[in-house]
Amino acid sequence: MPHMPQGLNLTLIRHAPVQGDSRIYGRRDLAADLAGSAQALARLRDRLPDPGRLLTSPARRCRETAVALWPDLQADPLAEAVEQDFGTWEGLAYADMPDLGVLDRAQLAAHQPPEGESFAMLCARVAAGLAPLTGPVTLVAHAGTVRAALALALGSVPAGLAFEVVPLSVTRISFLAGGEGVVQEVNTCA
């Protein structure tokens, strides 16, 4: 398991829905559908406390979501928080995805799409980005990033794949001084 952050109170927010095209978008830099999400953004903004240090994935949809939630705050990019790289699968219609057969969570976490990265690799990258952070931090990122943080908190990469993470949902995790993760809230919508 990668090195765990310590003394970090992390609030993760999955970006608003994308202006998508029914294709795998992982690293594709699509815009957020902010107009279609206006009511949900308003409810979420009213529910959230001060974000502390505000970070985002460098992806456009994450930056736009952060600005919609906190227009007066400057968010810093966290390069390690970018979505999983699906390699040659990026841009494929979901119906055209290859059939991987029956995989358990450990096998799925280790599976690496052609020219992409596995979920286990994503977890290692997210851990490296979170490791130096302390105090209250809010990160606007992707479903994969949220699942990776949950995997770190649980101490099991495959366990992170058990979670559904919907757009504009909140997940809160505290990483204690010893690196142990305490999951306080998962996939809560306003």
From TrEMBL:
One Pfam family it belongs to: His_Phos_1
Superkingdom of this protein's organism: Bacteria
InterPro entries with a match to the protein in the record: His_Pase_superF_clade-1, His_PPase_superfam
UniProt-recorded name of the protein: Alpha-ribazole phosphatase
